[in-house]
Design goal:
By secondary structure, the chain is an alpha/beta fold. The mean pLDDT is about 85. The strands form three sheets. Strands 2-1-3-4-5 form a five-stranded parallel β-sheet, sandwiched between helices. It has a four-stranded antiparallel β-sheet with strand order 6-7-8-9, with no helix packed on it. Strands 10-12-11 form a three-stranded antiparallel β-sheet. It is globular. The chain has helices at about 15-25, 35-45, 60-70, 85-95, 110-120, 155-165, 175-185, 190-205; strands at about 5-10, 30-35, 50-55, 80, 100-105, 130-135, 135-140, 145, 150-155, 170-175, 210-215, 220-225. It has two domains: about 5-120, Rossmann fold, CATH 3.40.50.2300; about 130-225, Arc Repressor Mutant, subunit A.
Length: about 220
């Protein structure tokens, strides 16, 4: 089995080395960059499987780097590392294509769980390029929704959430399950973040009035179409 290749962008040299060595002891291959420009060079040369990006870096910050990479690669998983914890910061990270967000300080065990969880999701390949949701055509790979001639671009997190809703169509998608799978845990902060994403999906599916995402209080969400 091929080893997982990780691009780690962390400008604090000592922390970067600790994380790199810890991951390598667990059989990952790690390329460490100390700024955004160096990270971009490594990304362009190495066929890495996942990006772990510090938000605050010299030359090019993590959000800018992720935004540039997302222009040509919609699928590679991205985890942001940051000391920031405001809701606006987290949502900004997701808006730039981030799949997950880990606050410093963090444990190596938590980082590894997040890495493995994101990589397992990228293995979903079957029947995801032409999913019929009411009058919409959902392309999970390209992260798009097509209604007649109108195309809507989804973020990575929106596409992931919609795919899981569709897989449980007309059944309840368990709130705790999806929070742990997509956000890493089911705390209050992440629950509020998920509510925001559900609201965004409702707006993007509004052209078909037969489609509804209903809140089943205390249990989760149900996609009806």
């Amino acid at each position: 089995m091929n080893k997982i290749k990780i691009l780690l962008a962390e400008d604090e040299a000592s922390l970067g080395m600790i994380v790199k060595e810890s991951l390598e002891t667990r059989s990952f291959i790690v390329f460490h960059a100390e700024n955004g420009e160096e990270a971009l060079e490594i990304y362009e040369k190495e066929n890495v499987d996942i990006l772990v990006l510090d938000v605050m870096m010299p030359l090019k910050d993590g959000f800018t780097l992720a935004k540039e990479i997302r222009l040509e690669n919609k699928q590679i998983p991205i985890i942001f590392l940051t000391a920031k914890s405001q809701t606006s910061d987290v949502l900004e990270g997701f808006s730039h294509g981030g799949n997950d967000y880990l606050k410093k300080p963090f444990s190596m065990e938590e980082l590894i769980v997040r890495i493995k969880s994101l990589l397992s999701r990228t293995e979903i390949k079957t029947n995801t390029d032409a999913i019929k949701i009411g009058e919409y055509l959902f392309n999970y790979t390209k992260q798009t929704l097509l209604f007649l001639e109108e195309k809507e671009q989804l973020t990575s997190r929106e596409a992931e959430l919609l795919l899981h809703l569709h897989q449980k169509k007309n059944e309840v998608l368990d709130r705790t399950f999806i929070l742990n799978k997509l956000w890493g845990n089911d705390d209050f902060f992440n629950a509020r973040s998920m509510d925001v994403f559900i609201s965004k999906l409702r707006k993007k599916l509004k052209n078909d009035t037969n489609i509804k995402i209903i809140n089943v209080r205390g249990f989760g969400y149900k996609l009806i179409c």
